[in-house]
Amino acid sequence: MIPAAGLETVIDLVSLRTSQHRSTIAIFDLDGTLFDNRTRTMFILREIAEKYDSACPALAGTFTRFQELSVVDYSLPVTLKRLGVRSRREKDFIEKEWAARFFSDEYQKYDMPLPGAKAYVERVHRAGATVIYLTGRDVGRMLVGTTEVLRLYGFPVGVAGTMTIVKKEFSQNDGLFKREVSGYIDRLGEVVAVFENEPANVNILHARFPGAVSFFVETQHSPGAPRLAPGIPRIKDFLLGGRAARRR
Ligand SMILES: [Mg+2]
Question: Could you tell me if 218 and 167 lie in one domain?
Answer without folding.
Answer: yes
